[in-house]
Amino acid sequence: MIARIITELGPWVWWVAGFVLLAAEVVVPGVFLVWIGLAALITGLASLLLWESAWWSWHVQLVIFALLAIAVTLAGRRLLSASDKGSDEPLLNQRTASLVGRTAVLEQPIREGRGRIRLDDTIWSVEGPDLPAGSRVRVAGAHGGQLRVEAQ
Questions:
Q1: N or C: less crowded end of the chain, CB within 10 Å?
Q2: 79 and 22 in one domain?
Q3: 3-state secondary structure the chain
Q4: Residue 90 forms part of a structural domain
């Protein structure tokens, strides 16, 4: 079936596949079909130039396409990661990590390693050494929604 499609459409099968993959990138989230689509377009360009060659069979075209898809994907990932700059707000979506270093007063005493503090408008569960309510503590770390505190 693949041989028949490639034979009937000729070198244009790769152009059609490439543009279909690029169009599908609009619908599918992520940036991965772009690279595969570009590999198909490059294979299509090679097919236009080499179509009359005896060795340019559909087997060779599929191997070339697969190798190009891998190479273009790796190059694209490297290109995108090189242009990825760090955020000016690295803790924006990491609320508990952004609380490390802040001080607070215990709302509830820490008993058996567990207690509660109020920071801003939120009451947080904390773990740390046993301390009475009203003690000042400093947030030393965070794991998930749990804060680790130490006496100040």
A1: N
A2: yes
A3: CHHHHHHHHCCHHHHHHHHHHHHHHHHCCCCCHHHHHHHHHHHHHHHHHHCCCCCCCHHHHHHHHHHHHHHHHHHHHHHHHHHCCCCCCCCCCCHHHHCCCCEEEEEEEEECCEEEEEECCEEEEEECCCECCCCEEEEEEEECCEEEEEEC
A4: no
CA distance 60 to 21: 21
Q: What would the pLDDT profile of 56-85 be if each residue is shown by its tens digit?
A: 888 899 999 999 999 999 998 888 877 666
Residues 6 or more apart in contact with residue 114 via CB below 8 angstroms: 125, 126, 127
Looking at the structure, tell me whether residues 7 and 65 fall in a common domain. Answer: yes
The predicted model scores a pTM of 0.53
pLDDT at 46: 93
Is 88 part of any domain? no
